[in-house]
Structure formats: structure tokens, C-alpha cells
Amino acid sequence: MNLAETTGSWRVAVRVARRAARRSKVGTLLIVLMLALPVYAGTAIALSYAATYTSADAEASWRLGRADYEIEGPGTDEVLATLPAGIRTTQVTYGRTVVRAGDMYRLRDYAAADLDNPLTEGMFTVRAGRAPRGPAEAAVSATLAAADGIELGDRLAVGAPLRERTVVGIVDAARELSIPLVVTPADQRLSGSHPRTLVGLPPGGGGWQPPDPFAHMICTPLEGGGESCVSSSSTRSRGDLRPDATELATRTAAFVLVVGFAGLQVALLAGAAFAIGARRQRRELAMVGAVGASRSQVARMVLANGLVLGAFAGVAGVASGVLTYWLNRDTVERLANHPLNAGAVPVPSLAGIALFAVAVGLLAALGPARAAGRQSLRAAISGREPVTTASNLRWLVGGLLVAAGGATVAVLAAGPTGNIVTVTAGTMAILLGVTASAPILVTAAGRLARRLPLAARLAARHAARHRLRTAASAAAVCTAVAGSMALMLYNSAESTTNLMRQPNAHTGQVLLPAQAAAHLMPARLRAIESALPARASVPLTVLAEQARTTRVDLPPDAGQNGFRAEPSQLVAVGGAELIRLVTGAEAPPAALAALRDGGAVAFYPELVSGGELAIGQNVRVPAVLVPAADYYTDLPGAVLSPKTARQHGLTANPGGVVIDTTRVPTAAEVAVANSQVLATQVDADPTNAEPAEATVGAKPPANRRDYGAMFLVLAVVSGVVTLAASAVAVGLATSEMRTDLSTLAAVGAGPRLRRRIAAAQAGLIVGIGALLGTVGGIAPAAGMVAFRDDLQWHVPWLPLAVTLLVAPALAVTAATLLTRPRLVLVRRLDR
């Protein structure tokens, strides 16, 4: 066939596809929605990503502005002396300071910087007003303004000593928009923090290298000999602040994972939909073939459906994605926690995403098109439906080979030094191999149908009769669930750094710092207690010398999450109230007797050796072990009586106050208490540049990694795609059973049978898909966890249970409620 004939054939096929789309509006809309879903999601993600992460250099600018280096420490002048001539410098200081808004005192972050200096460009975003200039002006972040009700022109007391300044601007820190921040001019430092010097190199000065940090050290002697040395200065460059290769690769892998899984899922669903459409067009296509059309021309009529609908879905998906992004820019910025670049529009990416819909549409229509081109004209015209003859063994062997190949690629590329994109590609191959099991499971369900109730038996046998189309729907649910499962498992993986964190005190206990407690008058302490759900307050008196630890063999579950915890070495002076404070229970008689007899009570086995507690270098006293519930960092590790401390000549100092509570205090209660704590320190020493706040006892969460905005967006998108896949798959299965349901109505079936059959179809498709998706989601999660050497597995049992049990239950419930119970009689073709 020459080019003119091929072009004309395609033109006719496209025209026929366009008219067929207009005739079947509901089916057309369903397929367009399926194809447009990943395009819509990909467009929103691409625009959000491009506006947030414009470039690695732009990310470095959030902390370094336009500077090339940041130098900090007492040796800064020595480093600056080595720089070439023509450098530009400015100072930026970060710290925390007291802020008084109304009658409330709070400890807030602050930054002292010259926002008009070119080197600080990109570090701050002026939302309203202007940058502060002079000692009488300040700016606040949008978060702080909203929290404390601050507006432009208000007077705000900040610094040490407190000084009222006029708020002239709303200024956010680009590194983290949510920080409640006070901004002052560069020469108006509000605390004793050391300033950082930003350095801009002159043209041609890029060859300068920072001096060796170990060349200039500051050393201090240690007790017992030796000394501790630290570098006199630290230097950071733009390269140090750019996202590393691991982070960039992880972002790319997450995007590829979700978009790839969504594309595969849509291709499978659309393929099933095109197959149903082609089946309904069998007689029409056979008539075209009967009047002289070749097999390729008949196939093009089905392929044209994918082309037309894919093109329309691509345009509609991109347009709706762009509109959604522009209408929700504030939300995207809040999620990203970084300023957005308004001019970042990834046109090539958007064009590629639109073409993705066309490619998926053609891919989804390819199988039905081949089947339509090879169908028997006589069978199609007579209305006889062909029987699926594909071998389950072929699917099993093919799936195992693809999964094995993907696993090999993923294992070879896994690890911190591997390529995470290659790992993701390998895990997607594993998923394809897993989805190949869907036809086998559908066939197995058909064979077990005779033991099922009527509705489930009919649904299972219909699914087995059309197992490839049913398997495609189940595989679509599988890919969607696998994407959600992969992100879920990766995000729940625990960082070994966080696992070793210890609680500071019992959950809910409030610890007042020693520097504040030293100035607390009884009336102020009662005010603090009245603001909290206080049970009792216990002043701490601690020894200047600490207890010595002796390593002992601990049980595997000692400390948090099985890691060896470090016991507190503080030794307090007190009695029964301190024992109750640490252990949460009344002091046993043996412990009280030990204190009376000149001994000690230890709360951790590492502090007791040979039945004695060693304090400092020379003091050893008999000790009784009363185990604490956990390893608390800010509570004493042992207790002595005051008489024993005096007998051994041990020096005791005030160590703060611990307020025991009846429940965990709310954030508002803690804020009121902290206002009193800060007011105490300000009244006692107005020039105190480093005040302290009360802390609340809490067990550090097992996993506090910052997943980033893109992971949150991707997880939401993956969840939406999962729900959409389940709904569409059930809708397709129910639509395909229209003729069978009509036959049941003709022989007297009740109207509720339709709902029960739809529910059984939903349970079968979503159940198989959720099971395979859970298995398939383990592989990509394992690949991403292997890429990070600081992560280890943590199984999120509740989300797993929700995915395996709740998702199929919801699908069954939704199918039952949304299916019309009336059985409709439709005309069947004459055989």
C-alpha cells in the first residue's frame, strides 16, 4: 500500500473514530478520564517541581543567596585574608531571641541581614512592606504575623534587652517559609550568636580553595588529661548546599515510579475498555472487512480510537493540570515550604506529558486492534464470541522471566553507590512480572466458582470467561496499589539516626531550665503550675560530679527500638519524690532504706558495678537498682540523700525544676507557662542574650525524616489513582456483563441480584489487584531503601491492613450502593 492510500486510510479511520466517540458519549468520557488522569497529575507535579526546584543552584541560594562561600567562627578574619582581591562580603546572623507581643513572651528565631545587599538575594522573600533599616525597625515572617496577630506599623518588643521596634515588612526566609522569624538589619544582632560572613568571589577567583580546617585549631584541656580541639572556622560553599546526587536521584525515581505505575495502570484499564468497545463494534468492523477492507485497515479503525481519545485526553489533562496549579499556587508553596519561581514553566515537559497520553492511548488500543484485524468475519457477523485460548503457562513463564530480569537489574544497581533510576526501572519490570499472575488467579477463581454463592459464582465465571480483560483490570489496580505501597514502605523506613534518640523525660513532664529556676519566686512558680495540669513540682539539686558508667550486657530490647541507650549520669540529691519522678511509681522500702543508710539509688544497670555507684574519681557508695521505664536524658540517673552528699564532700548545684503533670499539656498551656519562664529571665537579667524555655517530656517519634513536598504530592496522587483505578475497573466489568444481566432478568432474576453480582465483581478485581499490588510494591520500596545506607525496614502494619482489607471492602460497598438494582432488558443479536 502506497503512502497516499495509507494516509487516506488513516483519515477515514480518524473520522470514523471521531463519530463513534460522539455516539458513545459515556464510554468516550470514561476512557478520556482514564487517559487524562496521569496527564493531569503529571502536569501538576511537573509545574510544582519546576517552580519549587528550579535548579540545584537555586536551592543553594535559599541558604547562601548569591554568595560563593559562607564562613563562620573566630578564625573568619584569617580565612578572609587568604581570599583574592575584589571580594564582596556581608554578614548574616541567625539565632533565637525573646519576642514580646502583647502580654505574651515567646522565644523566636531571628535573622540579622542586609536584605538590600546583592549577596543576600534569594535568601529572603518580601511579602509586604519593605526590608528593615536602622535600629528602630524590624520585619516578621508571615507565619509569625499570623500567629501573633502582627500587622505592618505595629510595635514589637524584641532583643536583649527588650526594645520596641516598628514592623515595616513581612519577610519570609526562603530556606523554610514556615519559620516564625524576626528579621533585623545586619548590624542589629539580637543575641550572642556568632555572625556568618557571606563571600562573593570576584571574576576569575573561582580557583580559590578554603584553607585546611585542621590547620588552625582551638584546643581546651580535659579533666584527667588530654585536650579537645575544634576548627577555628568553618567554610561552606554553594556545592555543599546543593542537593546531592542521592536526593536528586530519589526525586527522579519517585516521579518515575508514580508516573510510570500510573501510566501502566491506565494503559491496562484503557486496553480493557478498548477491548470492550471493539467487542461491541465486532459486527460493524466485520461489515467493513466484508466490503473489501484489509486486516490492517480494520485494525487502524480501532487504533484511531486510541489516537483520537489520547490526543483529546492529553490536551484536556494538561489544561486542567495547569489550571489547578495556578489556582492553588499558595497551597503548593505552603507544602513545598520554599518560594515558587513564577516564571518556571517546563514547556517541553508539558508537551511530553501530553504526548504520553497519545502514546498510552495507542498502546492500549494496540491489542484490541490486532484482535479486531484477525477476527473471523463469519463469526463476527453472526455474533459468535471468540474464546480466549492463551495458555496460563505462557503467562506464568513470561512473568517469571520478566520479574527475574528486573530483580537482577535492581540488585546490581542497588546500594548507596548505585543508580536509583535503574533500580526503579528494574522494580517496574518486577511489577510487570507480578501482574502476569493476574490471568492465572482469575482462572483459579473461575474453577472455584462452583463452591460459591450464586452472585459470586456468576461473577467469577464471567471473569474467567473473559480472563484477559478481567486480568487487565486487576493488573491496573495492582499497579496503583503497588505505587502507593512503595511510597508507604519507603516513607515508613526508619532512620538509624532517629532510632537512637532517647526521650528527655516522662511524656508530659515539664522541665524548667536551671537558669530560669534560679530566679523563680514562689508566686511565679505557682503561676507556671496553674497554667499546666500540674500534679507536683520537684526542684532538682544535682552534683557537680557525675556517675561513672560500666558497660553491661543488656537484653536485646533495652533502650528504644533495641538500640543501646546511654544512661543519664546526673546524680541528684533528694529522696522519695525524686524516685517517684524518675520511675513513675512509689519508692520501694529497700530504696528508702539504702538512702537512710548512706547509699544511693541508681535507675540504670550501667551505673552499678559490684553493688556500688562510682561518682567522680574517688567516691564510691553502695547502690540499690530501681529500674526506670526508659533511658531519660534530662532526669537524674541516680539519687543520694543530702546527708550522704555532705559526708563525701560532694558539691551540689541547682538543676532546675521538674513539674509532674496529670496529662500531656496542650500547646496553648505550654505557651502560657513559657511566657512566665521567659518573663522571669528577662526581669532578672534584661541583657541575657540566650534565654531558655521549658521543655515537655516526650518520646521521640521513630521516624521524623523530612520526606519533602514532592513525596507528599506523589503519595496523594498515587492514592487518588488507586481509587480511580478501582472504580473504573469495576465499572468496566459491570458494563461488560450487561447482556448476561439482561438474560437473568428475562428468566426471572430478582432486581437485587445485579447489585450482588457487581459487588462480587468488585471484590474479585480489587482483591486480586490489592494482593498483587502489595507484593509488587515491596520491590521498589526495597530498592529505594537500599539506596540509603541510613535506613532500615519498618513494616507499617495498619496501612498494610487498610490496603489489603479496607480497600476491597470499600470497593465492594461502593459497587453495591452505586449499582442500579433494576435489571434492564436489552435486545440481543440474532444468532
Automatic annotation (TrEMBL):
Membrane topology: Multi-pass membrane protein
Domain ABC3 transporter permease C-terminal: 259-376, 713-819
Alphabetic keyword roster: Cell membrane, Membrane, Transmembrane, Transmembrane helix
Subcellular location: Cell membrane
One Pfam family linked to the record: FtsX
One GO CC term, this protein: plasma membrane
Keyword Cell wall biogenesis/degradation assigned: no
Transmembrane segments: 253-277, 302-327, 347-372, 393-414, 420-449, 470-490, 709-733, 762-785, 797-818
UniProt KW Transmembrane helix keyword: yes
InterPro entries: ABC3_permease_C (IPR003838), Membrane_comp_ABC_pdt (IPR038766)
PANTHER family the UniProt entry points to: INNER MEMBRANE PROTEIN, MEMBRANE COMPONENT OF PREDICTED ABC SUPERFAMILY METABOLITE UPTAKE TRANSPORTER
Record's protein name: ABC3 transporter permease C-terminal domain-containing protein
Annotated organism of origin: Phytohabitans suffuscus
